[in-house]
Sequence to fold (921 residues):
Amino acid sequence: MKSSSYWFLRSVPHFAVALAVGALTVPSVLSESVVIYEETFAGANNTKIGSGSQMVENTDEKTESSIMAEFTDHDDWTGISLRESYHAFRLGNKTGTTKAMAKSGAIALANGAETATVTVSFNACNATNTAKALVFSVLDSAGGVVSTQTITPLNTVSTYTAIGNAENLQTVTVENVPTDFHLKFAPGQTDARLFVGGITVTQEVVSEPVDPDTPTFTGPDSAEVIAGGELSFEVSAALADSTAVDVVFDGIEPTATTTPAFAEGVFTWSPAKEDVGTYTATFHATLNGTDYPFSVALTVLAPVVEKTLLSETFSGSELNTNWKSTSYKSILAEDGTTFLPNVADLVGWMGSNLLSGVKGILLGKASGYHGAALSPLIHKSSHVAATPIQVSFYAAKIASTASDLKISIVAEDGTVVKSSTVKPVVLSTDGGAVISNSIYALSCTFTDVPSRFRVLFEPTGPNSRIALDTIMVTRELSDAVEQLSVPVNVVASEVTQTGFALAWDAVASASGYEVLVTDATGAIVTSALTDTNSATLDGLANGTSYSVSVVAVGDDVAKYDSEWSDAVSVTTVEDVNEPEWTVTGSAEFTALTAGTFTVGASLDANALSVSFDSISPELTGTSPVWDGTVLSWTPSLDDVGSYTITFTTQVGENTYRYDVPVTVADLPPLKAVKPELSEIGSNGFRLDWVDNQIRIDRYGLRIWYGTDDPANATADVERFLEYNGGTLLIPLGWSSQGTQNYPSTSENRVKFAETGHTLTTKRYLNPVTEFSYEIARQGTGSTDTEALFRVEATADDATWTEVASYQGWNALIAATHTLTFDASVGYRRFRFVFANKNGYNVALNKVSAVYEGAGAHFAVGSASELLTLEKGDGTYVAENLHPERVYYVEFVTYDMSGTSATSRQSVWTQVANPTTVIVLR
Fold:
């Protein structure tokens, strides 16, 4: 598992080797073979490839500079040795496939060389007695191939000789290698299982000519140390004949809070946390009056703090109550992968003994089933979601046929957001049954983890049995400045049956706080994030004890989270003495309508005082009025919606709350009010109406004659807008023979369906000079030329003259037609005649006549403004009208928001009564 050391050296300085040249008296050019990369695989059955290396999902990058996997299928990756003496990386996997290959970390050439010739040596062998090819490649930093060679490694023997023997050694020389490069090893064919180990890369380095009278320094170019740790390295100087020269330490720049020491050629420094940064340590040696300088670049790194998010050891025979698990039938998708279970169903499982002396989770069940385990909900502050987390654990297979172990990060809503797969080794039965040792230690690192998550452990195949124990979830934070102080003086108040208020002293520099509530078993019940040093918890069980802790949240840049505060115990109020609440009346309101209901509380038949506490969500309109017993409210239109009104009562020191759900319904849709017409005479009529809608605010009235369009000032237009139950209502003064209603989605029209159907207009006031209309054939396709639609006109209502005719399919295509006449012709009435039907119908609309005095003539209101009538039951008498005229009445209903609804009707004034004139002589 991860070391618990707090201070440690980040890296070990690389010491240069002094170049001994004997007693030379002239400058010389020397060369040496320098090891620039070395990789060994220590430990038997080690699933970690190299020091610190870890499995990472869907990537070929691992930590530090160890061998890494390039997955084509990371579920089938194999990175284990076969025997304890067989320290190697395994390439390839299943029969017929080439699954696993290996790639090194970045390797840099020595001495700043841009290109060089390197020698790569490694041990390689086949896993069977059938020779298989190994493809060895050198890649540049962008992944381009610099060199590729195919090698046939030695076949293994049945005794599995250690891979480090001389027979397995391969040596490859590659020229023109760039300064940053990688090594790649891959099977050269399918069915290959190869092993690679003991990798060494060397570079021939040529030194500059050495002046025998110039001292050569030995010491690192750079060094790193973590603040709080100790840095130590040697610095010396010598001539070419190995004569030592004294070295003087000049100091470091800039100045640090702690002072380094240099004694007997050894530099030592223990920097403090305040010294985080970069420095230069300078030295010099003096020879024949000349000073020769030497410097070392120093880096002081901030300490790394490991924060434990979850620590779980399964030492008992029953699984901890916070854990959940499932057993489910394996379901394979088309690509062969297994569907994850629904985490909402992971309930009710228990742990069991694995083998004698082994306690923990046993994953896997009977044949054809999986067993998965899901951790408790883990809380990680929301603003540090990008901070990597590490999941470490012990895992061992119970049988060699068991599958790999898949570790997934599951969001709070059950979504699987991250996954990685590791390969546990078989549990040893001859060395004890305990799995808590390094052989079975595994870990995965995940980035971009949600602020609240669970960890799901799942075998990847059926018939699996895997032992799982000692699970830790941690994250590392850079301690750049300091840890926040622990919140203190955490106090609970206003305790009710279902919750309480919580407050604590503010913590300087905290960006927020997280409150955690657990029950007596330690299970997390609820949590809350807050920006202030207070919170209200609700939804708890009555008469139950809870433990509450608070953590101050940092930003992980200058501050990191505090430790959790001391737990505060809070017990919610028992329901034994709970008041009895009563609500009388309806809590359902309607906008703009007054309503009331009463709320009371009593205990042991004694009335209690009730207070209005709050309404949620906040109102934007009018507020309720509470008089201690009755709540009165006339909601506005803005208050339409659902609310919760909370009332409280006090019994001793305990406060009880009672929530009343309240709804405010919108008013019914605004409907047009259509006045009743009566007392119709030759020069006027009466309008009567009754208010029957709450939301009405006022009315508007307009009365005119001459056209159905009040905005039309030049023509008398009829659009046939009124119809009832499919029957056309002919406008006043018009007559019809057989015509029908023909409604559509956009307009209403007159339908001429049979031969002889006729529609006759009213008699216009003066001779018509322009007459227009829209006609259109209605029916299926036809080329008939016999159908005939005719327009006729009359000046005296006796003689009819044909003024237009349309015969045949093409003539009756939809169009507007306009006829013009001289006023002297005197046409004052027109009729439309379907003279001959043959297969289809004809539709008519928008009949318009222009004549002297045509257009809208207003008796009340105008085209732009209506007469305003106040709300209330009303009557209006229209007077001084013309006899024998068609008048249009438009009545507009308005609500308080300005929404309107319009009704329109027409009325024909009667013929004027004869007037008697008495002449007196």
Summary: The CA atoms of residues 118 and 360 lie 50 Å apart.
